[in-house]
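ugh ok so i messed up the first submission bc i forgot one of the chains. this is the corrected input, ALL of the components this time, i swear. 360 residues overall. if the numbers dont match what u have on ur side tell me asap before i send this to the collaborators (the ones from the other lab, u know who)
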Amino acid sequence: MCSYIMEKIRVFGSAKAGDEWRRIDTAHVYFDHPYDAPLDHALSIDFHNHAAGSRERVAVELSAESARELANAILAALDRGAQEHGEAPRAELPASIAPAGMFHY
Amino acid sequence: MSYLGQVSKMVSFDAHGGEKGQAYYAEPATGARIGGVVLIHHMPGWDDWTQEAARKLAHHGFACIAPHLYFRELPGSPDDCAARARSKGGVSDDQVMGDVEGCMKFLRAQGVSNGKVAVMGFCSGGRQAYLAGGRLKGLDAVVDCWGGGVIEDDPKGLTPERPVAPIDLTKDINAPIIGIFGNEDKRPSPDQVNRHEQILKDLGKTYEFHRYDGVGHGFFAAERPAYKGEQATDGWKKVYAFLDKHIGPRAKAEG
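and heres the new structure output, hopefully the right one now
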């Protein structure tokens, strides 16, 4: 099925495409038929820099299984990083980079 | 036997809102008068497979125009345009109907046209094809391939951009309809397809539904795991025969 459901969050960081690093401020996350990956459905993430007015994106399309593994790996890496660097995981982002909310279309 | 040659090219059409739309067009190279198909892509965009399907229809004797429904997001690749359209909540039904209407006019203006036009779509495009059947005048056939949301059981599925469940316009559809569905699909589910068929029966509409065991959603798409050759091949044959009957006769290779 085609889906109009999308999660939209504000993020802070950079993403690299080709030789170029770029600042990103927004991530769109959705589950639908992919454009390129040979899957029936995929978890897609588009990273944008909306503040700069950019229309470019850095995109990934992942199988549902690998997306869940990625999500778990991110959480595991954050936990290990917090332990090794003595920094408690943040329950909330600073207001300046707080999630902008979920958008269901 | 031989095969039909064909011509395919990029074209522009008069789109909704007075804009010039971008589309892919293919027709058999026989010069015979034939019917045309407006082919609507699915939500992820105007992809390679959509153009292949357009060529496939031309190969089987029909003219076909496949509009880029996200051309307003150009410049950029079709996938980037789709991502931009998605971030805005998708395109509105009004806009799509205006674009389809422009494509119908384009088809009828071609030298090979016999004046008959069908609309065909996959997934969200199947829903839009059915919607076109109810909203647009002058359609001769409707091809709904697993259109999700024709029956909308979730009230959240109705939005300002897509305010109507197309099933509610069934009474206004005068063109014959073909529906292709997988019995393992969840949207539309077999139950929704059954309810859909009952409404068509109750209203005395001309239709044919073909349901396939062993397949779910999108089983024509050869590059995806959902593809099933036996069911897809039969489904395409059902579509060609339906189009031949209602917008044909289709062009045929000689010899």
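quick check: The CA atoms of residues 9 and 100 of chain A lie 5 Å apart. that seems consistent at least. The two ends of chain A are 14 Å apart (CA to CA).
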